[in-house]
């Protein structure tokens, strides 16, 4: 496994070792000992999530606040996504900076997103199987987020407006300016 730092503090890309043969391929999608050895992080993931999305779906930007903030280890089992994170930690040297990365079922890359980051993704293909580990449990009351089309962040989701599929909940998330003023 190779760990590559992203431009955002504490956020990094993991490229697992993939074994290929005439049958197909195999890789360890998570190994606690290897993860700790290569990242120096001793994290206990407590919840695995999976979502399936059609082309054009944009989920996010989400995060849980306070005691229920979540670090996530993200990968795409099938399809292709543009994954986007924003550092929402006021004390961070990369505060309010954003980073996007293409995750696919082909490259098997993973993105580690620390607690205190907003996270979202756009489905660039149909039938995207998006799987991720969280180091804290889901807590509806702690859910928060930033509007995906926030003008300050000006994220290019790579999906034409006419093709965008966004939940009612996400369409009503606050802008960054509003969130920061709360
Ligand atoms: C996240 C979550 C949701 N749910 C329930 C709540 C809703 O009834 C239903 C769909 O939830 P939601 O529309 O919030 O799902 P996503 O839009 O995929 O949310 C996720 O998408 C972005 C990309 C993230 O990074 C977060 O992990 C998460 O917010 O699943 C649960 O029961 N447990 C959970 O952990």
From TrEMBL:
Its EC number is 5.1.3.13. The record marks 138 as: Participates in a stacking interaction with the thymidine ring of dTDP-4-oxo-6-deoxyglucose. Keywords: Isomerase. The active site is at 62 (proton acceptor), 132 (proton donor). One of its GO terms (molecular function) is dTDP-4-dehydrorhamnose 3,5-epimerase activity. One of its GO terms (cellular component) is cytosol. Pfam families: dTDP_sugar_isom (PF00908). It comes from the Bacteria. It catalyses: dTDP-4-dehydro-6-deoxy-alpha-D-glucose = dTDP-4-dehydro-beta-L-rhamnose. Homodimer. Catalyzes the epimerization of the C3' and C5'positions of dTDP-6-deoxy-D-xylo-4-hexulose, forming dTDP-6-deoxy-L-lyxo-4-hexulose. This is dTDP-4-dehydrorhamnose 3,5-epimerase. It comes from Psychroflexus sediminis.
């Amino acid at each position: 496994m190779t760990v590559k730092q992203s431009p955002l503090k504490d956020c990094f890309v993991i490229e697992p070792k993939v074994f290929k043969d005439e049958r197909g391929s195999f890789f360890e999608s998570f190994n606690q000992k290897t993860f700790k050895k290569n990242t120096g992080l001793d994290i206990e993931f407590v919840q695995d999530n999976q979502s399936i999305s059609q082309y054009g779906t944009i989920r996010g930007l989400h995060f849980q606040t306070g005691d229920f903030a979540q670090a996530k280890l993200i990968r795409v089992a099938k399809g292709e996504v543009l994954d986007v994170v924003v550092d929402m930690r006021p004390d961070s040297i990369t505060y309010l900076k954003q980073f996007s990365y293409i995750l696919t079922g082909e490259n098997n890359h993973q993105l580690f997103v620390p607690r205190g980051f907003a996270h979202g993704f756009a489905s660039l293909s149909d039938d995207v199987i998006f799987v991720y580990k969280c180091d804290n449990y889901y807590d509806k009351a702690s859910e928060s987020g930033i509007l995906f089309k926030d003008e300050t962040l000006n994220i290019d989701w790579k999906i034409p407006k006419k093709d965008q599929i966004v939940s009612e909940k996400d369409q009503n998330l606050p802008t960054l300016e509003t969130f920061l003023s709360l």
